[in-house]
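Example record for the data management plan.
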Amino acid sequence: MSTPTIQPDPLPLTPTPQTPTLTEQAQATASYILKKIASALPSSSSFEESIHVPRIAIIAGSGLSSLAKAFNTSENEEIEGDTEEVAVKVEIPYSELDGFVVGSSHASTLIYGTIGSGPAKTPVLLLSGRAHYYEGHPFSKTTFPLRVLKLLGVETCIITNAAGSLNKSYNVGDIVIINDHINLAGLAGLSPLRGPNLDDFGTRFLALTNAYDLDLRHKAHLAWAKCNQVKKLNEGVYAFAAGPCYETRAETRMLSMLGGDLVGMSTVPEVIVARHAGMRVFGVSIVTNSALHDPPPLGSDPDVEAHVTNKAMEAGSASHTEVLAATHTVADDIRELIVKLVELIASDKQVVA
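Corresponding structural encoding:
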């Protein structure tokens, strides 16, 4: 008779942790940011939603990290005669924020502070830097910060970028308000809303006929008048191309014929997600280069050797160095515009659409 073997008790099954949904991840990140803001307040102050929650967010495009200078400091608040409260400024690297992507060509910091003085002093978030689709990130990642902004209480997004000019009347250094867009990637099926709808944020089918808020565009023109600027503040249509290649001559002519005034590699996915979440959007571009419309010289041209020698094909080509240089020349102008715009939004009781 064989001796029965004693089987060990089975080990208890370790529950497999579930991956949080995008909404849960955004909620956790928003909670972390609010705690960081609250912990930075003076010991005499307690966090109050009506006072400290940011209702406006700014996304800084290429070369526009200097928008952080728009925030109040203890020094400039004293100049304005508002010394009752020390200016609070909180900087959080994207690397600390779950779900945020550190971009390869931009600063990557979330900054909280106030803009304006007196009754117009407003808590604002600045996203200094963005991730791009061309870096290999899906749209769900590049637009994730917009979901977090909504959960933080943001109602208005000011989205900036550097863009090439398709409109021949624009000059390098011009500031152009975006009043509509052409989403080439979206027409090809690449949308940040692709996949199951996030019902906690918005509806399945999103209307974009008023993507760029008319009231905000009107306020921007009023703000520009307060800046005492000589040059014109333009409005135009922004064409989104996924990048990273700059547009060819033929693509430039095509986009221009479609009604585009500007072309760039960002902004539109962010606008779509912001509008899906019910936030108002103001978009603005700095013209950094003029896209080439002229067809290339023909290989059969009798002067082809001269064209090759003179590098005619390279003349006028865009470069990232050129883009950054152009934004730096007008960074102060766009910062002043945004400060005045924030003050006008803050003074308007109808902040929510």
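Summary line stored alongside the record: The CA atoms of residues 173 and 329 lie 7 Å apart.
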